[in-house]
Design brief:
The complex is a heterodimer.
Chain A: E1 2-5, H1 16-28, E2 32-35, H2 44-50, H3 54-67, E3 73-75, H4 78-93, H5 95-105, E4 115-117, H6 118-124, H7 128-134, E5 144-147, H8 156-159, H9 169-176, H10 200-216, E6 221-224, H11 227-236, E7 244-246, H12 247-254, H13 260-264, H14 272-277
Parallel strand pairs in A: 1-2, 1-3, 3-4, 5-6, 6-7
Helix pairs in contact in A: 1-12, 2-3, 3-4
Chain B: H1 2-12, H2 21-30, H3 42-46, H4 57-65, H5 69-73, H6 77-80, H7 86-90, H8 97-110, H9 118-134, H10 139-149, H11 153-169, H12 183-192
Helix pairs in contact in B: 2-8, 9-10, 9-12
The chains are: A alpha/beta, B mainly alpha.
């Protein structure tokens, strides 16, 4: 299985363990990621806050680069994913804009490079029995809550997930790894990450509400599929000690990949004491 | 009874929906029919940042309907909207509020209103500028520009110093930027967007 890979800016910086675990896990599962040549930042929240045009033209350049290969785009970052979806939709619906961008960026839009989130690819394109068969170290005793956050599932007319309020794919994946996912009510609530540096007072309230709710639900960690949620929850929780783990890290652990320690030591809240107490590292 | 109804009809036949040129402009630019709102307040209830806004999301829609241009263009609400799309996903009338909030930001800037959330605006400016310079966000220089642009230096440093130290110790903030080769194309996208 081959995909065009759009890692996004955080995969080598604030979400470096997400980038590293994505690449290692995909290799182990036979998913070939071919990095988009010369990709740029999607603009994220600030792009659409300041300019309607940049909100689609910046991610549009990445969608444009992906057209030649004609492979689905594998995108681990929900913001990159949602922005690329918005650009792809505009390519389909706004012919004038498409023609202008084709001239400017020297490409031909074919619609053969669907922007897809990595969780969608791992959750839908792989054989579940095959994943379960590859699990060498079942994550027994690990009780994560699945946390999707906001733009991974919304707006549903762009993302098309199983259910924008109650998605289940991450729970199923965690179960396949041998973990015992816990139900909670904050599965798609936003953590406010785009305000983390500029209104940290607001973000501290949101993050602690989430961590508190996960604790009350009986979880011992939070499973994330977003580089911004993870760093936000990892660094802004107060008086708690809840490890925030990427689903790709948990998958790497379950597959018993030898490189997991290099990911875990990049966390602000070290997940290793928990994993050690469960005999998982 | 019949005469009462016909009397009422004749009195109301000249009434138009309360459309203002402001409301129509917001509607045209956002692509959202703001007149469909019947004020159930589901958007406000699901909004993570509503509690910090001066006007909450449902109030914003009502004020647009009523043509309350100036208070809205001065409002903190559009700047505190994180674009999480909970409101639009849950709206029984299919109004997506996030593009409406973005439209209010654009209109406020065009009309020359200084964003009341100075730190929020400063970060957006620094972030978008970083992409213009490198094609990708370079956290280190972006943060420096953000601190210089914001007018609340002491509180920014105080509320972020712990996180900054953690990120440095965990080697999550890169010293050197990554620059895209097709920077000319990126700059052209900025020129087209008028930025």
């Amino acid at each position: 299985m081959k995909y065009s890979y759009y890692p996004g800016c955080t995969a080598s910086t604030t979400a470096v363990e997400y980038g590293l675990s994505t690449e290692a896990v995909c290799e182990a599962l036979g998913i070939e990621l071919i990095e988009l040549r010369d990709w740029n930042c999607c603009g994220a929240t600030s792009g659409h806050a300041l300019s309607h045009e940049l909100a689609t033209s910046l991610p549009g350049r990445n969608v444009a680069i992906a057209q030649a290969a004609g492979l689905d785009m594998a995108i681990p970052c929900p913001a990159c994913y949602q922005r690329c979806l918005a650009a792809d939709k505009r390519f389909q619906e706004d012919e004038t804009w498409r023609a202008e961008m084709e001239g400017l960026l020297d490409f031909e839009y074919t619609g053969q490079a669907r922007p897809r989130h990595l969780l969608d690819i791992i959750g839908h394109d792989l054989d579940w029995d095959d994943i379960a068969a590859r699990v060498k170290k079942p994550l027994e005793g690990l009780k994560p809550v699945s946390y999707y956050g906001c733009v991974l599932v919304r707006p549903p007319e762009l993302t098309g997930w199983d259910d924008p309020e109650h998605p289940v794919i991450m729970d199923r994946l965690l179960q396949a790894m041998g973990a015992e996912p816990v139900s909670w009510s904050y599965i798609v609530d936003c953590c406010g990450a785009s305000l983390t540096l500029n209104r940290s007072d607001v973000v501290v309230v949101l993050v602690n509400r989430l961590v508190q709710a996960a604790e009350e639900a009986g979880a011992n960690c939070i499973a994330s599929a977003c580089g911004m949620c993870q760093i936000n929850l990892d660094t802004r929780q107060k008086d708690h000690h809840m490890p925030i783990l990427y689903f790709t890290e948990l998958l790497g652990l379950a597959l018993d990949l030898p490189v997991t320690d290099a990911w875990f030591k990049r966390h602000a809240i070290d997940p290793r004491p928990l994993l050690r107490s469960l005999g998982l590292v | 009874m019949k005469s009462q109804i016909s009397n009422l009809k004749s009195q109301t036949s000249n009434l138009q929906p309360p459309t203002s040129s402001f409301a129509l402009e917001v509607q045209r630019r956002s692509g959202e029919n703001v007149f469909r709102c019947y004020y159930c307040q589901k958007c406000t209830i699901g909004c993570p940042t509503a509690y910090a806004m001066d006007y909450q999301p449902a109030q914003v829609l009502k004020m647009i309907q009523l043509g309350m241009r100036e208070p809205l263009l001065k409002s903190s609400a559009p700047w505190l909207c994180v674009g999480c799309e909970a409101c639009g996903t849950r709206c029984p009338n299919g109004i997506s509020l996030a593009p409406v909030m973005d439209t209010l930001k654009y209109m406020a800037l065009e009309a020359g209103y200084a964003p009341p959330e100075t730190t929020v605006y400063a970060l957006h400016r620094a972030f978008v500028n970083s992409i213009k310079i490198f094609g990708r966000v370079h956290e280190t220089s972006m943060l420096v520009e953000y601190v210089l642009r914001s007018k609340d230096l002491v509180s920014i440093v105080r509320s972020n110093i712990d996180v900054a130290v953690t990120l440095l110790l965990k080697r999550k903030i890169p010293i050197l930027p990554e620059r895209v080769e097709g920077l000319g194309q990126v700059k052209e996208l900025y020129r087209r967007a008028g930025r």
